[in-house]
């Protein structure tokens, strides 16, 4: 079933109110996806007019006085997937003119529905959300919003193919300069591509545009798991066959052929040892190998460089670093003697020593995405006793030089070059759903018709940047491998056209990263790219994985 907006409703309050309550026409259905869009003026002395999220919702707020996001208006977007039925939503604000719109959507993916977020702001009469970059699948729901200062200023000449759902203003009891106008738009896509919402203002005003894309899905259950259910179909019976004449074939083609490839990751409380190769071994719930204990799969061990004061109490604060991760596991299995030994040999094969390579330890915990730790076997000592001939128990140790935990699914974000060197830039968003900084691989393909002599990729949210000063020939590719930098991998951090060019990386050469929540609200990072010459037609792609410290 494609995504569908079941209902939407809105409300607005004047500047003397601290909350706005939206009452829906009817209670939402169980499992629906809810989206809340709120806009407000930024009160003097505040950076964020929204002190808290609505109950049960998570999201991000845009209220920054930066080069791309205006300092007079603010917009916030929250979502609540697989929601229980509700009939109203209340948004708190800091005593400023406030607008809120709530949308109930059905038919979205029931896990990780949010795919892309595009954010742009400015003050000319031409408004835009910026491009989303290539969406993940053809059937996605686009929800866009554009807010501008002064309610008397209208919006029109919309582009992008989205239908306008509402056009509202904050209450007329406020002065026009303290009011704002909000339009909300939506569309269902049918092709994979990049989308954006644009339009024009009747008078140049400060504005912010946001466009979100949500993956389409089904209305079925979030998971379908069965360890003991009967088969869906059973074939049985008796019969006889009589053949007249010769009945043989040595080279006839098969009646039916099945082909293809795929991979199903571990379910909850399962681990895949040894990687996804032929010798990978699944252990845990529902397998032959029962997990007795696991230590080190989460959490962290921190080493401090504090040094004692020679004459005073306490220590001088140093730099803390996360130590390598050690995972201690213990499993058991039973069965006849031959099966016991075969199971032991499969475990030994999966955890055989590796001189210099790591394998991906895939695992899944309830409510979390499929994740991986890059590790290698450290110790596996077999013990043979009389008891082991009935119930075999085996302990093992894994070591991860890189202690970070990564999502099994990689993300990719395209960052367009801003058209000029002025104060307005083209910003896009990149989401890090983990709890630690994510370090991307940055790939910049040079413009087809001009050499690029400099570029700067900026993370407004994380207050970090990557800057290159050198020649990127037309059509050549620059690769900035931040994971190699932070894990000291034996490969070049910066290459241009396949040749190492570390000197092109402008000092201080701090690794570029994407911040997690709460450093970035909702894990949403606002990024922009500048080039020399300005607006060069380069292609900049960031590939990364959500990252957890533990």
From TrEMBL:
It comes from the Bacteria. This is IPT/TIG domain-containing protein. Residues 9-20 have a biased composition (Polar residues). Residues 1-20 are annotated as: Disordered.
């Amino acid at each position: 079933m494609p995504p569908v907006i079941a209902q939407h409703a809105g409300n607005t309050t004047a500047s003397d109110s601290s909350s706005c309550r939206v009452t829906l026409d009817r209670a939402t259905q169980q499992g629906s996806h809810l989206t809340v869009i709120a806009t407000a003026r930024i009160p003097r002395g505040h950076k964020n007019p929204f002190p808290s999220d609505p109950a049960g919702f998570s999201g991000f707020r845009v209220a920054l006085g930066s080069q791309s996001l205006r300092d007079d208006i603010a917009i916030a977007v929250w979502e609540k997937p697989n929601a229980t039925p509700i009939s109203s939503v209340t948004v708190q604000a800091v005593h400023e003119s406030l607008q809120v719109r709530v949308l109930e959507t059905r038919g979205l993916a029931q896990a990780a529905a949010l795919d892309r977020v595009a954010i742009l702001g400015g003050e000319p009469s031409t408004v835009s959300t910026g491009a989303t970059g290539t969406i993940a699948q053809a059937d996605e729901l686009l929800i866009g919003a554009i807010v501008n200062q002064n309610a008397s200023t209208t919006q029109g000449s919309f582009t992008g193919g989205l239908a306008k759902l509402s056009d509202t203003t904050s209450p007329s009891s406020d002065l026009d300069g303290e009011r704002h106008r909000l339009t909300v738009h939506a569309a269902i896509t049918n092709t994979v591509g990049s989308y954006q919402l644009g339009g024009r203002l009747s008078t140049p005003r400060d504005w912010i545009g946001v466009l979100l894309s949500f993956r389409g899905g089904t209305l079925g259950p979030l998971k379908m798991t069965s360890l003991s259910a009967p088969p869906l179909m059973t074939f049985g019976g008796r019969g006889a066959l009589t053949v007249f004449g010769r009945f043989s074939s040595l080279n006839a083609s098969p009646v039916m052929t099945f082909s293809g490839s795929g991979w199903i990751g571990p379910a909850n409380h399962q681990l895949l040892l040894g990687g996804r190769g032929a010798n990978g071994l699944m252990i845990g719930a529902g397998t032959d190998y029962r997990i007795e204990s696991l230590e080190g799969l989460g959490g962290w061990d921190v080493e401090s460089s504090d040094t004692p004061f020679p004459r005073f109490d306490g220590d001088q604060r140093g730099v803390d670093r996360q130590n390598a991760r050690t995972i201690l596991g213990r499993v058991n299995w039973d069965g006849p003697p031959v099966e016991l030994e075969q199971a032991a040999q499969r475990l030994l094969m999966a955890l055989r020593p590796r001189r210099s390579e790591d394998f991906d330890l895939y695992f899944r915990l309830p409510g979390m995405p499929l994740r991986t730790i890059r590790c290698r076997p450290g110790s596996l000592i077999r013990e043979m006793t009389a008891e082991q001939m009935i119930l075999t128990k085996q302990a093992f140790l894994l070591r991860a030089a890189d202690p970070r935990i990564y999502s099994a699914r990689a993300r990719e974000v395209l960052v367009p070059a801003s058209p000029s060197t002025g104060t307005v830039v083209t910003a896009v968003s990149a989401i890090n759903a983990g709890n630690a900084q994510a370090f991307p691989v940055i790939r910049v393909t040079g413009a087809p018709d001009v050499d690029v002599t400099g570029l700067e990729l900026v993370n407004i949210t994380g207050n970090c940047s990557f800057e290159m000063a050198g020649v990127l020939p037309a059509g050549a590719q620059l690769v900035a491998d931040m994971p190699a930098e932070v894990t000291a991998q034996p490969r070049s951090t910066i290459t241009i056209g396949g040749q190492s060019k570390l000197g092109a990386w402008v000092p201080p050469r701090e690794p570029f990263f994407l911040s997690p929540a709460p450093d970035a609200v909702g894990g949403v990072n606002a990024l922009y790219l500048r080039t020399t010459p300005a607006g060069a037609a380069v292609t900049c792609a960031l590939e990364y994985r959500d990252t957890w410290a533990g």
